[in-house]
Design a protein that fits this description.
The chain is α/β, with parallel strands linked by helices. 55% of the residues lie in helices and 12% in strands. It has one domain: Rossmann fold, CATH 3.40.50.300.
């Protein structure tokens, strides 16, 4: 039996990724598309313990206090556990997997800690580590939601006020988020991600209009 397909939605904090993911799930269910959905990190699982300590500031109050390679291992371990105890069998049996974040997030968030000239080496290491050494499936399609820093920060603030939550060490560091945007641009070029712009004709796009484009892209890919 041929292996399944893995479609990933990626974007920095405040890119609107979660809203788009929820809409995609609803559309797929309405259209009767059989799929399995996953969201990373899995904060409710034991496999995310190191992630929670890291983001909570136990290892330092700034993202750079934990180097890109070490932090990547924290997130990769959670993905490995999820593959083994959740969606791996579905994928191996030919199922469709829709993921909110994936190995792609390590490329963006951890790669941003490195000088730009070191990014190709890091991107190559990350692919070998997660896909080669750990044996996680490579995504068939990565949809990257572009955004600018001002919009990202405004959306995160609204979300925190709405949910009465506090920013983690990633979300607090504006300079880090700015580096994430630049790194995501490099990663999209390096890995060949499909970009979805958040502006059109100088105006921020409507969330449902943008979702329509993303859904049409997925349907074309699935044939």
């Amino acid at each position: 039996m041929s292996k399944g397909k893995l479609i990933v939605l990626e974007g920095i904090d405040g890119s609107g990724k979660s809203a788009q993911y929820r809409r995609l799930c609803a559309r797929m269910e309405k259209d009767g598309i059989d799929y399995h959905h996953i969201v990373f990190p899995r904060y409710e699982k034991d496999s995310s313990a190191l992630i929670r300590l890291y983001l909570g500031g136990s290892f330092g109050s700034h993202p750079g206090d934990v180097n890109a390679y070490a932090a990547s291992v924290f997130f990769a371990a959670d993905r490995y556990a999820s593959f083994r105890d959740d969606w791996g069998r579905v994928y191996e049996q030919g199922g469709l997997i829709l993921s909110d974040r994936y190995t792609t997030s390590n490329a963006v968030h951890q790669g941003s800690k490195l000088p730009e000239e070191q990014l190709p080496e890091f991107f190559s290491w990350l692919s070998d580590f997660e896909y080669g050494k750990l044996g996680l499936p490579e995504p068939d399609l990565v949809i990257y939601l572009d955004v600018d820093l001002k919009t990202s920060l405004a959306r995160m603030k609204r979300r925190q006020e709405k949910t009465n939550t506090h920013a983690d060490i990633h979300e607090k560091d504006v300079a880090y988020l700015e580096r994430c945007l630049r790194t995501a641009d490099r990663a999209a070029d390096y890995y060949g991600w499909t970009r979805i712009p958040f502006m059109q004709h100088g105006v921020e796009r409507d969330v449902d209009e943008k979702n329509g484009e993303i859904y049409r892209l997925i349907r074309r890919y699935l044939g």
